[in-house]
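look at this fold:
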Amino acid sequence: MTGTTGNDAPTLGPTLSGQGRVHPTGVGKDTRRRVVAASFIGNFVEWFDYAVYGYLATTIAAVFFPESDPQAALLQTFALFAVSFLVRPLGGFVWGHIGDKVGRRNALSLSILIMSAATFCIALIPSYASIGAWAPLLLLFIRIIQGFSASGEYAGASAFLVEYAPANKRGLYAAVVPASTAAGLLLGSLLVTLMTSVLSSDQMESWGWRLPFLLAAPMGLIGRYIRTKLEDTPVFRELAAEDNAIKAPVRSLFRNHWRQLLQAVGAVLLNAVGFYVILSYMPTYLSAELGVGAAESYFATTIALVTYIGFIFLTGMLSDRFGRKKVLISASVLFIVLTVPAFALLDTGNFLVIVLVQILLGAMLTLNDGTLPSFLAEMFPTRVRYSGFAVSFNLSNALFGGTAPYVATLLIALTANDLAPAWYLVGAAFISLIAVSLSRETSRAPLRHQ
């Protein structure tokens, strides 16, 4: 069976191997470029929307919890951050089902629309001073919608890219997803850095914090438009043409691929904790716990994000050359050995040292984050790929990622030890090391249909 993708080269029919049908070849370069651009922009918009909340945590705490002391208000703000993650496993089931039954493109186009609308609505919520307890309740409701939407984005974009990528460059292509995630964080960090430098605390609390959320609507519409102009992946279209998709992808996932699912949940743990501690919680940690100025904290994180994006693509190439397992194991070992000393250096108060430490932590994290999208997508066959990725990624992030800022703040409060978040990261790295060690190498194997 042959087909075409627009004006590009023909898509060759699948061949057979001991592992089932493999990935079709012959997708044109123009198509792949459009796929990369759409995946980058769409994921960028989703995670800019989602990350702004984390960067504005201290301001949001003052707006929505003004009657609490600062640390209690911050805990309540991060509790709302964590609660929105609790809906993500449910979202993983729903988006996984849609993505494996209806198509990757359709799921991604809908998820970005929901996320952008929800984020825009956050900007419209009145403050606690205006409507009392209804303000945090409305914020909680919208955060839950955000969490539901985000649960389909990372997995879908990764599956989309891996299924379109050349067989020997799946790691590099999939690295676009964490790179675009970091780019969304970077824009959020730049905006917050600029606003905290220009606006007073009163201006930030009265109206300034709303500005980044207002950007969600136009950015989301642009991302959705680009995605709707693409065809779905060749392997999914082939399954659809054969009417060969399974009726209940999630049920098949738990029945036939539960070992891979457990391994994937464990492998994601370092990403879940590391990403939200190092790239989202860090400005709050530096300013609220170590006494570093707010503008300096955001600026240091911004520099770390820039270097993180560059390292991500290098990691993707390394995983294509040396294999997913070797790179993921290296990441876990480095975090086990270096995290506590690195956090100890943050307390020196020296801005240059803080920046260098954040760059180091970010580089270590890219060894995991840049490899994980291709690793997870390759673990599952086409029929349940979206579901397997979405369920494992969102379950681990719900339990350990979204709760990471809250747990880090709580551990510091309970132990009176500023290094508590570092030890939490070390524990996550140990579990990921075990999970990855028990999994199979996926970089050399063809993508399977079943």
User: Anything to note?
Assistant: Residues 219 and 415 are 42 Å apart (CA to CA).
